[in-house]
Design goal:
It is an enzyme of class 2 (transferase). The chain is of the alpha/beta class and about 325 residues long. It contains 11 helices and 10 strands. It has a single domain, classed as TIM Barrel (Alpha-Beta Barrel). The strands form 2 sheets. The chain has an 8-stranded mixed sheet, sandwiched between helices. Strands 3-4 form a two-stranded parallel sheet.
Amino acid sequence: MLRRRKPCLPKGKTVRDLKVPEQRHPEKAHRPDNAQPRKPSWIRVKAPTGDGYNATKKIMRDNKLVTVCEEAGCPNAGECWSQGHATMMIMGEICTRGCTFCNIATGRPNALDTFEPGRVADAVQKLGLNHVVITSVDRDDLEDGGAEHFAQTIRAVRHRSPKTTIEILTPDFLKCDDSVLKVVVDAKPDVFNHNLETVPGLYPTVRPGARYFHSLRLLQRVKELDPSIFTKSGIMVGLGEDQQSVKQVMDDMRAADVDFLTIGQYLQPTPKHHGVDRFVTPEEFASYDKAAYGKGFLMVSATPLTRSSYHAGDDFAKLRSARNAKLGQA
């Protein structure tokens, strides 16, 4: 039987003599200097549940796979997993970067698992996916940044599920030369996604280990190496940017020939992460959507709950149709 321990008190003092700090705002007491604001109605989602969700979870566990849905605390996980859609995160669950918006653990990663590409392919086949999104942590500890591992995973999925279209969401391969990117491109993913994440002025505080123009050049180089591959990138809003800087990022992406833009609301994972500057309204998201199409993107997803892989399969079908329509007009 556990016994309740008595508090350790100064000599001659009783519990009544102790002063309890005043808590004017108990909901903010965990960190008053960076309290997480209450989410508006348009950003709230239902908790994950249901047979479909549990079946997807079991396949992930049986194949010992990590998902960014869980690691990053995606608000859409319940909806996506209930439909058998999960974004698989390869090369472990420890990242070598320390971005202030991201909830993925930072540290020294383990060695690559040579059997992981096969397990990803097995999970894709069991889930019966028409479209799969595969992402990874940053692996600055590897000479090629994990490029060959990405290529092996793409080939394994293609071999096991030849009709499945493949979308990859890669790191920036910042410390690697151009030949590394070619390894990934030569594996022929259908969509090459690399997120800029935010506007350039916020990079020092939000994405300190990355370089804005390097990421832009990465996306541009993919198109130069293989124009048939769709390129995709996304940013979060609510980090402290203004509308003009968001539209400038759109222009930069179009200059790099990016096909597909995603814009979603930033949600602070914990009080230790970068704070939410504001919750952007659905009306402002609609204005971004209109502006982006006006700048020439083939596909745009700009809503509070938009994430890189949210409805990725449906969006890919629309993206392909938009390209075909554009080519038909040429």
